[in-house]
């Protein structure tokens, strides 16, 4: 049982923590302006060629404006208590925070995801007309956490369950780890030999690829390591056949976000709830 004096001390510590947390919260930047400040400095014709030559894959180690990176780092740390942990023996171990939680607690990320400057730039790179993912897709924007020894994801494609193509934009947020993104280019193109590669994505770095074309994995984290990445998913056709929707939802519930997040949000979206954009 605590005394009044202890309560006072606890209250004062808690106030100090709140004040110091507030002091360190960076102001949310203007997403459009921040993206434009970077994309307009690039040689975009060259990047488009690189993307095509690498079989719909591009890596840039310095993409985000510093104020955007700072905001993402703050959000990634602030959302640690919201992480949903998953373990699929032999394939995947780690944590994730879905778009639904991000909408509630880190709206700047949703704003960045919808940035017209960002989408326009990705359209230039890919040569495709891109759309945001439907409101009930928890992968539309999500944070992925590698915080315990062995956290990783095995070789896979970001398979599109949609009628059209699905692109993944991966942004480095926190990297205090030895984790690497290993990948193989051209695996779906019989005319070009497979080309392996590996990158460690620093905060503010970018990887952009067609999910059905890039075979990739994240190597296991070691002890006392922490890696957080943010991924955005864009599609060329947001329609999905009902049976594919079921497979996709089951996969998301088991491998990523948990049944509550996936199916509760799906029901809400169907009934015209506030998450339907
Ligand atoms: Fe992936």
Question: Please, could you describe this protein's structure?
Answer:
The chain is of the alpha+beta class. It has one domain (43-270): Sandwich (Jelly Rolls). The chain has helices at residues 4-24, 31-39, 44-53, 66-78, 99-105, 107-113, 116-126, 242-257, 259-270, and strands spanning 57-60, 84-88, 92-97, 131-132, 141-146, 152-156, 166-176, 181-185, 195-199, 206-210, 215-218, 226-235. Strands 1, 2, 3, 4, 5, 6, 7, 8, 9, 10, 11 and 12 form a twelve-stranded antiparallel beta sheet that branches. The termini are far apart. The model is unreliable at 1-22 and 270-277 (pLDDT under 50). The protein binds fe (ii) ion (FE2).
Question: What portion of the residues fall into strands of 2 or more residues?
Answer: 15-25%
Q: Can you tell me the CATH topology?
A: Jelly Rolls
Ligands present: fe (ii) ion
Please name the fourth-level CATH homologous superfamily. q2cbj1_9rhob like domain
Helix content: 25-40%
Total strands: 12
Number of structural units classed as domains:
1
Give, in order, the helices and strands.
HHHEHEEHHHEEEEEEEEEHH
Q: Mean of the pLDDT scores? A: 87
Biggest β-sheet: count, sense, barrel? 12 strands, antiparallel
Regions with pLDDT < 50 over 5+ consecutive residues? 1-22, 270-277
The separation of the N and C termini measures: 48 Å
Name of the level-1 CATH class: Mainly Beta
The radius of gyration over CA amounts to: 20 Å
